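SAMPLE LOG
Freezer: B-3
Tube label: C17
Construct: single chain, 644 aa
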Amino acid sequence: MLICPQCKFENPNSNKFCQSCGTSLAHQVCPECGVDVAINAQHCHKCGAECGTIWWAMITQVTSAVSAIEETGELTPNSENPVVGITDTSPFLKLALDSYLDSQQRYRLLESLPNPEIIAANKSLTMRVLDCQPYQVSLIEASLGHETKIATQTIPDLAKAYLELQVEMHPAIPKIHDAWQQDDLQVVLLEDRSNLPMLVDVWQQDTITMLEILYWFYQMTQLWELLEKVGCRQSLLELSNLRVDEDQVLVLQRLYIEPSALIPQPCPQDEEQALSIKSLGQVWRNLCKQSQRTQFGFVVQMLDDLESGKINTLEQLRSLWQTQLSLLEAESTPEKSPSSSTILQFSDETEDTMIRNDDIPTMVLSMQLSSLEYAGYTDVGRQRDHNEDYFGIDSKVHKLELPKNRLVTAQSVYILCDGMGGHAGGEVASALAVNTIRKYFQETWVDAELPRKESIREAVYLANQAIYELNQKEARAGIGRMGTTLVMLLLQDNQAAIAHVGDSRLYCLTRKRGLEQLTIDHEVGQREIARGVEPTIAYGRADAYQLTQALGPRNENSIHPDVEFFDINEDMLLVLVSDGLSDNDCLETNWQTHLQPLLSSSSNLEKGLQDLIDLANEHNGHDNITAILVRVKVRPSQQGLFVN
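STRUCTURE (predicted):
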């Protein structure tokens, strides 16, 4: 099937245009100049930008294979069991530049093969390939998307670890696109991370702080535990495999399967050769050496203790970090601010160990704002002749770049209102509410901290009063009284406040927790649930979706705005929407395709927002549609490490 890039509708493979929205399925849009380009083209014919869909292919020969591991850790041939490895380069000779990996001629090679000696010396051949049918769903994508199981006998061994880790949704693990075995070659296609800088190169940059290095240490420790489950810890021991994405997060280019994971039965090994955190310590030592940077003494001591065996568990390693970080805190004497910190999360088993051991302190990692981006848009929809939605954004972002430090501060207010009261009613109320609140904060929000709860509520009351007085002045009555919903987000660096009245919503998306709704609609159904009524009964009422609160129809005694505060301690996408987008579980159903990609700094928020509006018109379309996207990136604070 072909998945429409615009509305995600499933089309037959023979379609040239989407049956749902009419989008071309034979062309793609150049991200640089916007012209239509054939889907099987690598570069734009107008501006030359690379616009094709590129995958990173791992190609490995299937041979008769191994029964034992040599001292080097390599596998030796045995005729009893098939296993991956390169012993003969002849199957690769049919692969050449511009030839295809598959018999359907979908994946075209973009690189020439290395000479046979290089092929034979490596465990697998890797190269970039162009997807000439990018809208066609692969077997693996279809199975993952519909949560159906794939027959394991049809999947190459190299692909199974990716599939098992896919449910973790960990950003460090490359996403698998397709995998198959053809003749005596196994092929696995992954997202292309070959252009990301290597960790060892980023490590050498003068702007990288010791705190960022320690955070990479932590990420590697976390990944070690995750990869151990699938026998892929070797992935962390190859320096060229350690990459850094656009958000300075440690990621892996690919997975390396440990030789022992390929053997059906346990194989005796020299204890010194078995993988342990000592191996991880050696990688850290190599990174430190190659960076040619002066290291903190406690890092050197940590590496020595790992090598000597004084540290032999992840728990011991974490405890040492915590002790040394407390000393670092004492030397730098930063201002402690628990309200802007986050506890480093480990596995459930590790957390249980920490709970049982009162002597082990809790490492708290203070975060600071790294970047802030936003986009807002409103659309009339497909059934209305006027737009009663309105939004306002007032954002001040200040960036300070120094040789050893980068500092980003921000003070922003994002307001979205969905008006009611008909033409020249609802649209007046929503605009009046936005402008009243915006003006209030322009005049009163002068400190570098969030306004107090009382101040935020005062802004909402003022907006209500402005609309209420206009209703009174124009002698509006009953359903003719204008009003509006409100959802508002205030940001001061990485601290946030929410206020809302009505059923306009604010969602939060993170990699760890997925999509969460942060506001609760002020409507009859939710009121009944709060009183203890079963949800099915509460929403079985005819008036279940009737608003219990709105700005404007009545005086301030009738509204009780909800105001909440929270800290942003991980990368986050905040989504403010009117019910034209949130109705019928539109976001809950489509967040993985339309919101999750927007967590990455490389994605375009403006385009992502337009895709959301188009989705809402397809999925709903009965109402005005408004959304504000706010992408907040954070990183460890240079003055924020301390121990409780």
